[in-house]
Write a structure and sequence with these properties.
Length: 422
């Protein structure tokens, strides 16, 4: 486990010294995502992530990318519902300049009104592309149903009307309140020295002035998402329900169950809906764990006249898994698969430091690789049976279906089935 360095600014730094690597992977994580967005400003966290690359007090926007790309490196960012990450790769000799640019992006972005208008147009175009991606559309709307009246129900993209109302001062205020070094984590992996990185970071990331008005987030209930309706030439359906949050000790057992249900070409949903019934080309199950809550879901594309048949087959497989006796050979197969997937996921240096960075950012604690492997090894029939009984109860499921003739269907399992039968 990596020991964090904490700077006077409050920034926590994790460094994996990996002399066998050629380059350095970096990520700067800050708890500023959808759940921190004020009412009426849906999408402001993602907009801020776009805007910082338009330029800073010291660097023009094109300068930032040019300096990184000169040595074959990259610099990018992404926004989630609970945090934003600035990330990249560079050669060891480029680390000082990279940290300088990272600090400029984080602490001193320009955030001008003209740049804001341009980036709003870009994100609205992203929104239009989302409407043309029915698989992504129904899975996002499933989250809106499962997390209804919670900030997690909102899309990272936000709402075009909210975005068009935003002004530069709104984004500056969000930045000043939520992009705080005392809540952030900087993670690096590569042929670098931990103490040297600490000295460089202390130089570039000095303490910030106090946040104006505290770090206010969205807090309580929010209005449910009401996106424009997409179009499709076949049925795209997602079903799901609340599940375990990030950091829950039983999350590994849940992930094993989801894998057995629909996590690959040998999973039960795939074998039933694609191989046996030939109803679906794309069918799978998944789970998503946020700090504030989790969900599991299953997705399938179906012929327009086979929505009911597909849903009933999905329910039958769920009920069969709830009746599963979890014989030792099945449990051992699932444990072995989960252990292998976990270890293979750590092959990337960036994945290793990101795992520890997110634990520190989201939970304030970290778990060793050995502890996680031990938790997987301790999962047995009782844990899997408990997860199956909890997750795979259709009466608790929400459904979102995009139908080429009926349009958008959404609601509880029984209500949607009744509507399909009409």
């Amino acid at each position: 486990m990596l020991e964090p360095l904490t700077l006077p600014s409050g920034l926590r730094i994790l460094v994996e010294e990996a002399p066998w690597l050629q380059g350095v992977s970096l990520g700067l994580y800050v708890p500023a995502g959808v759940v921190q967005e004020p009412p009426g400003q849906a999408g402001i966290a993602h907009l801020l992530e776009h805007l910082v690359f338009r330029g800073t007090a010291k660097f023009a926007g094109d300068e930032l990318s040019e300096r990184i790309e000169e040595d074959g490196g990259e610099l990018n960012a992404y926004t989630t519902k609970e945090y934003t990450c600035l990330w990249g790769r560079t050669l060891p000799c480029g680390v000082p300049a990279f940290l300088e640019m990272l600090a400029e992006l984080f602490l001193r972005p320009r955030l001008g009104q003209r740049d804001l208008r341009r980036e709003v147009d870009v994100i609205v175009e992203e929104y239009e592309l989302w409407l043309q991606s029915p698989e992504e559309y129904v899975c996002d709307l499933l989250e809106a149903e499962v997390f209804r009246h919670h900030a997690l129900s909102r899309s990272v993209l936000g709402e075009p009307d909210d975005l068009r109302r935003l002004r530069a001062q709104d984004v500056r205020g969000f930045h000043a309140r939520h992009w705080r070094l005392e809540g952030a984590v900087l993670a690096l992996a590569g042929p670098i020295d931990r103490e040297a990185v600490g000295r460089l970071a202390a130089e570039h990331f000095p303490p910030q002035a106090p946040a104006p008005g505290g770090r206010r987030g969205a807090g309580g209930p929010v209005r449910p998402a009401t996106p424009r309706e997409a179009r499709a030439t076949q049925v795209h359906v997602a079903v799901g329900a609340p599940a375990r949050p990030y950091g829950d000790p039983a999350l590994a057992a849940q992930e094993m169950l989801v894998q057995e249900f629909g996590g690959g070409p040998n999973a039960r949903l795939f074998l039933r809906l694609r191989e046996e019934l030939a109803l679906s080309y794309g069918v799978y199950s998944y789970d998503t764990a946020y700090r504030a809550g989790g969900l599991w879901g299953a997705y399938a594309d179906l012929p327009a006249d086979a929505l009911r048949e597909g849903l009933l087959a999905l329910r039958e497989e769920a009920q069969a898994l709830r009746r599963e006796r979890w014989q030792p050979d099945l449990v051992e197969r699932l444990r072995r698969s989960a252990r292998g997937a976990f270890l293979l996921g750590l092959d990337s240096p960036f994945a290793r430091v990101e795992r520890e960075a997110l634990q520190l950012l989201q939970l304030g604690r970290r778990e060793s690789i050995e502890d996680e492997i031990g938790r997987i090894a301790g999962i047995g029939r009782d844990e899997l049976r408990r997860e199956a009984q909890s997750l795979l109860e259709p009466d608790a499921w929400q459904i979102v279906a995009l139908h080429p003739e009926r349009g958008l269907l959404r609601g509880r399992w029984n209500d949607v089935l009744e509507e399909v039968d009409r």
